[in-house]
Amino acid sequence: MTNQQVYHFFKDRWKSSFLLAGSMAVFITFNIFSDYWFTRLQNSSFYFSESLLFSSFWILFIPLLYIQNYWIKATKKLSVLLLITGLMILIHLTVYPALVWLLSKIGYDHTFPYIQTFNFGLTAYLIKTVIIYASSSVILTILKNKVQHPPQTADEITEKTAMQSMVVSDMNNTKIIISLKEVLYFSANTPYITIHHSSKKYLHHETLKSLEAKLDGNQFVRIHKSHMINLNQIISYQSRQNGDYNITLSDQTVLRASRSYAKDFKPMLDRLHLTSK
């Protein structure tokens, strides 16, 4: 299976739930079997009902892993990912003794105290809990990133490299071929974009996001949600002392590079060896 097929398999609620439930059933069976052989080796009594009760530890993975994976798909920050993983481990270890207490109170002659079961859970299941939630986080994050950012094909790379011009329309709807080298910058003008060419301006029916995907990233780069500039048309830049930059183009147009784009844009400025004002 490809990364995308695996990711969408886990993304499908019913398929992933079925796989998770089957895995937990295997763990519960193995847990009961281990308890049985341990009592045989210790020459002690084996109680199937109690072994089944304490094996409810594995059942909690079904809802909690689903919640964890749902939150992981909604975040991109490593700090949040670590927080989610730690929170799931904490919830599991604290809910487990409460579940054992409740089930034993409802269906058993003896009720198992919360603290006693909590200490048992830390001793018997802490490492397993950490490994399962941490592994789930890593696997889902890797699969999500590979699906959202697939490697470029040779055709896509060639298309970007080869794109040296584009077709635009003037006021008379005449099709004109302009050189991308002579484009100063693109600006958002919903539902169009304005192409600021060295000779004149053109309206183009496309979004900045879609155009950015087609252009060579070594030549054109976003500096703002509303602007994408031609790096070769920059003559200077100046810090605004707040994380933003003023970018001056060859026609003396000054544009602001917002701080959210500066972290990607600044290394490109350094590469061009531009001189600050």
- The average pLDDT is 82
Helical content, roughly?
55-70%
Which residues sit in consecutive blocks of at least 5 with pLDDT less than 50?
1-11
State the order of secondary-structure elements, H for helix, E for strand: HHHHHHHEEEEEHEEEEEH
Look at the helices and sheets and give the structural class.
alpha+beta
The total tally of domains equals: 2
Strand order of the largest sheet: 5-4-3-7-6
Biggest β-sheet, characterized?
5 strands, antiparallel
End-to-end separation in angstroms reads: 54 Å
Using only C-alpha atoms, the radius of gyration works out to 30 Å
Strand content: 15-25%
Number of helices: 9
**Strand segment tally:** 10
Task: Give the quaternary arrangement of the chains.
Answer: single chain
Coarse morphology: elongated
Pfam families: LytTR
Transmembrane segments: 18-39, 45-66, 78-102, 122-143
Protein name: Histidine kinase
Organism: Chryseobacterium angstadtii
Written overview of the protein:
It is a single chain. The chain is α+β, with helices and mostly antiparallel strands and 277 residues long. The chain has two domains: 3-148, no CATH class; 158-271, OB fold (Dihydrolipoamide Acetyltransferase, E2P) (Beta Barrel), CATH 2.40.50. Helix content is 55%, strand content 18%. The protein is built from nine helices and ten strands. The protein has helices at 3-11, 13-42, 48-54, 61-73, 78-107, 114-148, 154-162, 208-214, 259-271, and strands at residues 165-169, 175-179, 183-189, 192-197, 201-204, 220-224, 227-230, 234-239, 245-249, 254-257. The strands form three sheets. The chain has a five-stranded antiparallel beta sheet. The chain has a three-stranded antiparallel beta sheet with strand order 8-9-10. Helix 5 packs antiparallel against helix 6 (114-148). The radius of gyration is 30 Å and the shape is elongated. Residues 1-11 have low confidence and may be disordered.
